[in-house]
Automatic annotation (TrEMBL):
Its EC number is 2.4.1.25. The gene is malQ. InterPro entries: GH, Glyco_hydro_77. Keywords: Carbohydrate metabolism, Glycosyltransferase, Transferase. It comes from Streptococcus ruminicola. This is 4-alpha-glucanotransferase.
Amino acid sequence: MEKRASGVLMHITSLPGKQGVGTFGQEAYNFVDFLVETDQTYWQILPLTTTSYGDSPYQSFSATAGNTHLIDLELLCKQGYLAKEDFETVNFGDDLENVDYARIFEARRPILEKAVAKFMQSADNQKALAEFEKEATWVKDYAEFMAIKEFFGNKALQEWDDKAVVRREEAALETYREKLKDVITYHKVTQYFFYQQWADLKAYANEKGIKIIGDMPIYVSADSVEVWTMPELFKVDAEKNPLCIAGVPADSFSDDGQLWGNPIYDWENHKKTNYAWWVYRIKEGIKLYDLLRIDHFKGFSDYWEIRGDYKTANDGSWQPGPGRALFDVVRDELGELPIIAENLGYIDAKAEQLLTDTAFPGMKILEFGFYDTEGKSIDAPHNCNKNSVAYNGTHDNEVVNGWYDNLTDEQKAFVDAYTHRHEGEPITQTMLRTLFATVSDIAIATMQDILDKPAESRMNIPNTVGGNWQWRMLKEDLTDERKAFLKDITALYCRKNTFK
């Protein structure tokens, strides 16, 4: 990990542009140029995986397949797979500051189908696809899963009408492979487009000295290709229904706790395979990103298991996770890895010990640190440690303006005094100064705070469905003054990227 560096948290979907959602197109390259211009080192993003009901990148149909909403149509046009008129007059959404997922879900599919058909007309392209399939060994199962899922009206795996194909009986699989071969091809080719465009964008960023921090959710969805093809890795019944699900008990986000709905891993079976799937999954993550943030790291020391007859997320119990053994195997197989541990939530002595044992940098959230006006919080700026990544907040927290507005008068007075806030200084700038001044090796600013955006720009409210993951920046919001402020605090607090 670089020492004394900084970066920006901004998901691809939040980039500006004319396609209804941020993509891997020109605006992504412009964002890299902005990071270079302001002397940043890191671009942190959310998971690039597919999204399902609720549009969350943490509930995906696959641990590996990419979100096809991010495929840029202009780039496909430049490659000759689309004509401008195929997409230029399409309405992808009327609100430039919010993604209309329902609309882009409907609008993008026929356009991508045209691109796939054009792509498949070339023998060279068919060879390139075959090479991609050899490398991306997961894509065959994924494409079949999605094609069959669509055939059953996009219903969840457990609700498919044909239980023989839920159980993966070979005769049933062969029937659907033949019946749905064109749709299967569509899903393979769009994954090829996704991975090609992402590889080009990441290469551009790396050439400019920008490193990508990616995100690996700890769990996969019950409605996923992994549960379909590898049910032995999860606590599910013969029809792939979860016997117990993941979540957390009552916390600051919900008195009833959080019901995530993901199936719990059968850790005994993972241990029997010497954690082969985890080694594979982390290896794939390191291919995609330069640093890998592992979500909900607490779940590896012990996890909250909610039984099938639950009424709320509080109807559960703590169960032991794989602990250090998993990461020892990963280190033996893959060597020392650039991993960041999301050590937030119920961080007890057991979770702290796992973080110490792995030596991964953990995370500090300064917003949490100011609730205690005596400065005793482990997230207070003076309690940050070098081997950590500091944030004012992440995608799950309020943006600084919303957070500050909701503080008590006593808390606001404490923040203002502690940070030496100047009269008239926007609280976003105050908190960004404080963040960059911490001793944490890496400081990551959210783009909303750099742009001084209001509470409504928050990316996600945990334990809620709908209205999340929608925020997009407007190009004109990124003024020269905001760039200059970011560049100045990066230099002042010795976080300047020395790549150039």
